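ok so for the tutorial part 2 we go from a plain amino acid sequence to predicted structure tokens. step 1 is just haveing the sequence, like this:
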Amino acid sequence: MRNSPKLCVAFLIMVLLFGLSHELPPFWPRTDLTMTNNLGGPVFTVHCKSKDNDLGVHMVAAKTDYHFSFQPNIWKTTLFFCSFQWNNQVKQFDIFDAPRDQDDGYKFNWTIKPDGPCKLGKKVKCFPWK
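step 2 — the prediction. this is what the tokens look like for a chain of 130 residues:
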């Protein structure tokens, strides 16, 4: 039985689009996310996770930042949630939520303030802590 050229082309397109491990192909841009400590003095500890990745615990000194990058999925379901601790307080926030953020580009800069995180850009958008 002879393979159809159309079937081979369709299979090749599927491999290029979805990759062998169902992740996005390498030509899809990675998303870069930076959080800057603007609490006004104290060091904070941040622990970010997604469904598939635990980024570990990091200490962020005043006026310094923590950065990570990742490959969002094409279904707009990527979610990174973080806990922040400083001065005996524990706060939580979804630092990347694909339905909210994915159409805003591939570089995200956040400032972490006592009253909540703010996403910087053309428009500053601040959010309350959870």
